[in-house]
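Worked problem 6 (solution included).
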Amino acid sequence: MLVTNKLQEAPAGGREMLCRLNHDVLKELLGDRLVVVELDKSPVRGMASVAAAFRGHIDGLDQGAVDSILGKVASLGLDTVFVDGSNLGQVAKAVKRRFPKVRTIVFFHNVEARFFWGALKRSRSVHALAVLLVNWLAERKSVRYSDKRICLSARDSTLLIRLYGRGATDVSPISLQDRARLGPEDREAGLPGGFALFVGGVFYANRDGIAWFVKNVVPHIRIKTVIVGKGFEAMRTQLEQPGKVEVVGAVDDLADWYRDAQVVIAPIFDGSGMKTKVAEALMHGKKVIGTPEAFSGYEDVASKAGWVCATAPEFANAIAAAQADPPQSFLPELRALYEGKYSFDAARARFAKILEPSGSNLSMRSSLW
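Solution. The predicted structure is:
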């Protein structure tokens, strides 16, 4: 059984894209044997909902959904439950307590407690603190009641150990469905070099990162910066500079923007997990200029993928180096990195090994709790 948030046919956000890919990989591996439970997110309203959230009923999960999941596990004789997101830890707890021999696998999109700690630091409020605590409690259950824990990177695994006493059993880097258009007419249509491209949704780390870049790097570079991503329309007044910075906002298809960019920028200074925009750039055969945070999880390919920068002068120098290279719309060696490590086929091979039956379930160290 796969328990996941509501799947989107054409997902736009990084988490939504990865949820869809995880489903499609499991479907290809298991076929009609895969039972899918999708959860519709609903806002938390009222004291009863707040109390339920602290019990793990978040992101579309409530007691009715938990009872339905347990009923299907029993009636169908399922032997494995794959929980797509550590925020759904109440599912792992309920399944493991009712069916101790059923294998529970939790996929960690990031370390939720770390992610929401960053959000709390950015916006100090009772609401942000409550969201952090709710997700910490849910994630704690995911760690405690899982037989297998899949993290995107070794960093996330290490952080799980620090926070909860147990790390990942498996590491599977971020992977994306192929959305690049790779025909000769697409590779050669329009010479790149007109802009540096930033792609991302308007969550706190993206907002802060691109605002820092516009303030500290843009005055020192001779290339236009284009910002593409849902929600950035609201920051147009704050960020746009005639001839220097353009805010596009949401688009239906990123392929043309990647094709015509000379380089992709990723000035991200906080967060968890892996950054979708790096794998996406490699998919489109583009180099990336990003911070160490942006390249977290990509360390083994960073020197090939682009430039790692921590300061404004380093970003400016890297962009100058990118402009000095002969403009190319597509670098096949970068596309090869995507295909080998971050593609659907790469994820399918990793999941096939992870799903192999093990000799015995991992013991739960209750003394930690």
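Discussion: The chain has a mean pLDDT of 90.
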